Every structure is written in structure tokens, then in C-alpha cells.
């Protein structure tokens, strides 16, 4: 089936591409032993093949120091089988210490997190694979790998101020846009400087209508259940917002 140029133009008129969007990036040059969690942080890390430790930390904790976390934080064990299938919902600061890839796949993928600290505490490098995060505003990456040239980096996911002004002139309200971040987990190896670009698109419902075979990384509204306590009206509001896709690599 042929598609006319008018149809193509109509589809892409809903999109404004922001290639290589500027981000606020800070490379932390402090020694690894001095890097630590912020206060009032929820910390998750795997302690064994089938469970996680869920901790509330109110004191600075060195990243990847599980003994110190268990001593100074309030922690309890969460079975791997009890992880929410729809992902986490964490409005505050969330820190995740990663040794194995399943923690990212089963715990974080499609989670709604505003401020995320990801620390790689393993020995074997992580292969390239994309993780979908919803509502992400700030991202901090730490790698405990001894030869990582960029052990600690921080990124604020937002277009440059000049671009933001241009978008507002075109009636794109970035303050109310819904953020969808695709994160290449290979950045946890600390081998390169974080880079990102963003794409501003139409609301999710419009996107699904125009591209019916495109897998949107979140589901349409459904009735609330014990396994999915999300309010359908909240999901509807999200699906009506313009989307800000950011690719971090």
C-alpha cells in the first residue's frame, strides 16, 4: 500500500526532533571511597539469587557497601517472586546497586522513577541493552569497576534553555510532558561520557493511532487491581500528555 506525501507530512507534523539535546552533565572526580548515597534515599540491592534488600537510608552510605547499608539503614528482604510485574513507582530518590542484569530487567524496567542512582557493583562488564524508565528527571551513574575512566556521572534530563523557549513558542509545554527514557545499561561500565538526545512527540494515544504496530512502553488504562493499583484516571492523564523520549547512551 502506498502512502501519499500528504499523509507522511501529517504524521511527522506531530513530531519535533531534538537531536543531541544538551544536558547538564557532571563528572565526579572524587575517589571511589568518597562517593556515597544522599540522605533520605530508598536503596535496593540483590543479596542472593532470589531476593533483594529494600533499605531506607538516613545516613551517608558508600556505594556498593552492603555491610554498611545493612548496619546503618533500615532494611528488609523482598523475594524476587514478589516484585511488582508493572514495575516500581518511586516519587523520591531511588538508589539501585546492580551486580546482575536480572535486577535491571525485573526490578527497574518500565518503572516510574523521578530521581535514580544506578551503581554497578559487579565484576563482569554489562552488555548493551535498553531499559525503559518512566518519569525520569535526574540520573546518576556510578561504576565500581577499577579501570572505569568515568566512575561517577550525573545528568539532568531536560532540553537546553534555548530549545525549551522555541518549543514553548510552538505550544509544547515541557513542564507537563511525560518523560520516557531509554537507557543503555552499558553506561554502567563507566567507559565513556554520558550522551543523550530527545524526541518530543504527541500524546501516547495519538502515537498508538498513528503507529498501531509500535510497542509503546506502557499500557493503556485498565481497572485497578491488587497487582496493578494505578488509578485509571491517572493513567488517562499520562496518556494525554505530550511525550518526551530521551535516549541515554
UniProtKB/TrEMBL annotation:
Domain of life: Eukaryota
InterPro entries (alphabetical): ECPIP (IPR029250)
Pfam families in alphabetical order: ECPIP
Keywords (A to Z) from UniProt: Signal
Residues making up the signal peptide according to the UniProt record: 1-26
Name of this chain's protein: Uncharacterized protein
Organism per entry: Gasterosteus aculeatus aculeatus
Amino acid at each position: 500500500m502506498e502512502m501519499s506525501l500528504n499523509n507522511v507530512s501529517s504524521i511527522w507534523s506531530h513530531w519535533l526532533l531534538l537531536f543531541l539535546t544538551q544536558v547538564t552533565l557532571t563528572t565526579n572526580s572524587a575517589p571511589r571511597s568518597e562517593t556515597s548515597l544522599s540522605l533520605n534515599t530508598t536503596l535496593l540491592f540483590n543479596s542472593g539469587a532470589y531476593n533483594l534488600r529494600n533499605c531506607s537510608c538516613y545516613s551517608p552510605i558508600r556505594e556498593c557497601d552492603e555491610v554498611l547499608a545493612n548496619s546503618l539503614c533500615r532494611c528488609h528482604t523482598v523475594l524476587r517472586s514478589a516484585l511488582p510485574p508493572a514495575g516500581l513507582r518511586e516519587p523520591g530518590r531511588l538508589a539501585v546497586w546492580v551486580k546482575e542484569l536480572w535486577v535491571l530487567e525485573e526490578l527497574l524496567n518500565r518503572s516510574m522513577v523521578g530521581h535514580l542512582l544506578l551503581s554497578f557493583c559487579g565484576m563482569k562488564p554489562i552488555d548493551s541493552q535498553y531499559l525503559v524508565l518512566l518519569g525520569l528527571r535526574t540520573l546518576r551513574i556510578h561504576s565500581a569497576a577499577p579501570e572505569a575512566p568515568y566512575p561517577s556521572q550525573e545528568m539532568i534530563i531536560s532540553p537546553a534553555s534555548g530549545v525549551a523557549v522555541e518549543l514553548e513558542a510552538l505550544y509544547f509545554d515541557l513542564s507537563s510532558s511525560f518523560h520516557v527514557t531509554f537507557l543503555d545499561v552499558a553506561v554502567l561500565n563507566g567507559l565513556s561520557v554520558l550522551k543523550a538526545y530527545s524526541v518530543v512527540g504527541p500524546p501516547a494515544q495519538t502515537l498508538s493511532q498513528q503507529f498501531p504496530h509500535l510497542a509503546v512502553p506502557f499500557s493503556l488504562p485498565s481497572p485497578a487491581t491488587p497487582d496493578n493499583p494505578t488509578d485509571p484516571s491517572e493513567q488517562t492523564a499520562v496518556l494525554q500528555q505530550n511525550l518526551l523520549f530521551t535516549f541515554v547512551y
